Amino acid sequence: MKINLVVTSEGFRCATDDDYEKKKKLKRGSVVECTVKEYRNYAFHRKYFALINLSWEYLDESQRQFFHDEVERFRETVQVAAGHYEQYYSLTSGEWQQRPKSIAFDQLSESDFSTLYEKVKDVIYKVFIPNIAKDAFEQELRN
After folding, report:
1. pLDDT tens for residues 15-25?
2. CB-based contacts of 33: which residues, under 8 Å, 6+ apart?
3. Would you say 51 and 117 are in contact if contact means Cβ atoms under 8 Å apart?
4. Do the Cβ atoms of 40 and 102 come closer than 8 Å?
5. Longest dimension (CA), the chain
């Protein structure tokens, strides 16, 4: 069972109603083991996807068709180009191939995610929107 907690001056409290319901199932006085793991900044995680989606909007029709009109394929391609991938051997093609690593909260630290964000932004600027003013793009991203 996983329960998300918020640190307060009095100790821990359940982060959501669902977490509270899970906690209520525990017997009073029982001893439980807890692993503490800080979550990444959720707002920054959303900003990452806003970057991907805004970049997708800047692509022309032929670029979108290259990704089969799927923003998820675009995101994966940009992540691989930014160096966030793992290699595997494909028996069908007989070649080593790359697939993007997970960006799930429990798979990537805040620091590593921040580095990935900057690298992805660099790939987008250099490859997909080189003629767009960075300031204008950043302003639109903030909005």
Report:
1. 889 989 999 99
2. none
3. yes
4. no
5. 63
pLDDT confidence bin for 63, thresholds 50/70/90: very high
37 CB contacts (<8 Å, ≥6 apart)?
A: 106
- Distance CA(24)–CA(97), nearest Å, equals 47
As a whole number of angstroms, the distance between CA 86 and CA 103 comes to 12
Q: What does each C-alpha distance from 69 to 11, 51, 131 come to in angstroms?
A: 48, 17, 22
pTM: 0.73
Residue 38 bridge partners (DSSP): none
Instruction: Kindly tell me the sign of the dihedral angle through the C-alpha atoms of 110, 116, 120, 122.
Output: positive
Provide the pLDDT for residue 15: 86
